[in-house]
């Protein structure tokens, strides 16, 4: 869905169904209909370009306030401002929140956000005291957005374009990988750090990690997250 509607979409979960909703034009509708069997459309008011912002609200997680730039940030709190535009990661998704929760209780040190998307986890890590912080993504747009997120928040993040499974990665004490399960497993096989925080897969799933000890696990809204420590 992100490939079809890069600007973002709403996800609504029921007991045995998931609905994805996006604002798009006729060309976008054609792409979506070609990819999904069950599609319905309706026209929207002229203010649709601003209404999508209603879906993006602030959250508090790991001692941080994370919210969009149009929502006033509270005073006296550690703040992460992220614009939910061209790359995945607003801070509100359960996998992102779980990763930040786990980082908040880990010993700080250098950190790599592997598959950084918008850079929200990397910036949150910097706010939590990790450093130096690196962020990599194979998508050049994500790299650009992550750099913008870091600058917006006034934190130093070394953002690079890289494939987490093929390219050389910056050395770090902790790696965070909020990506799909198969990529998490392949990344763990590379042993990129002594501690790895993983998410991006459903509750009940766990990466196959024979060279790692499971140190901690969380479930949030039907999604899982884990901390692995190298044996």
- Percentage of residues assigned to helices: 10-25%
H and E string: EEHHEEEHEHEHEEHEEE
- Spatial arrangement of strands, main beta sheet: 8-7-6-9-10-12-11
Biggest sheet record: 7 strands, mixed
How far the N terminus sits from the C terminus, by CA atoms, comes to: 37 Å
The CATH topology assignment of the largest domain is Rossmann fold
Total individual domains: 2
What's the architecture of the largest domain, going by CATH? 3-Layer(aba) Sandwich
Overall geometry: globular
Number of helices: 6
> Total strand count, please?
12
Taking pLDDT < 50 over at least 5 consecutive residues as the criterion, the unreliable ranges are: none
Looking at how many chains there are and whether they match, the oligomeric state comes to single chain
CATH level-1 class of the largest domain: Alpha Beta
- Compute the gyration radius: what is it? 18 Å
Strand content: 25-35%
């Amino acid at each position: 869905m992100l490939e079809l509607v890069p600007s973002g979409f709403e996800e609504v979960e029921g007991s045995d169904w998931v609905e994805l909703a996006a604002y798009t034009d006729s060309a976008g509708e054609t792409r979506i209909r070609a990819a999904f069997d069950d599609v319905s459309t309706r026209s929207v008011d002229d203010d649709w370009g601003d209404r999508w912002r209603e879906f993006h609200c602030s959250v508090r997680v790991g001692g941080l306030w994370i919210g969009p730039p149009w929502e006033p940030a509270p005073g006296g709190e550690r703040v992460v401002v992220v614009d939910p535009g061209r790359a995945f990661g607003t801070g509100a998704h359960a996998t992102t929140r779980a990763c930040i929760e786990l980082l908040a209780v880990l010993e700080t040190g250098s950190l790599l956000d592997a598959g950084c998307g918008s850079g929200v986890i990397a910036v949150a890590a910097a706010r939590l005291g990790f450093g130096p912080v690196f962020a990599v993504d194979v998508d050049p747009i994500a790299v650009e957005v992550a750099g913008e997120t870091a600058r917006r928040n006034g934190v130093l993040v070394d953002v690079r374009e890289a494939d987490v499974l093929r390219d050389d990665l910056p050395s770090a004490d902790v790696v965070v990988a909020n990506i799909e399960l198969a990529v998490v497993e392949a990344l763990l096989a590379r042993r990129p750090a002594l501690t790895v925080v993983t998410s991006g897969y459903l509750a009940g799933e766990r990466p196959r990690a024979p060279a790692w000890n499971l140190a901690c696990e969380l479930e949030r809204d039907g999604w899982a997250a884990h901390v692995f420590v190298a044996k």
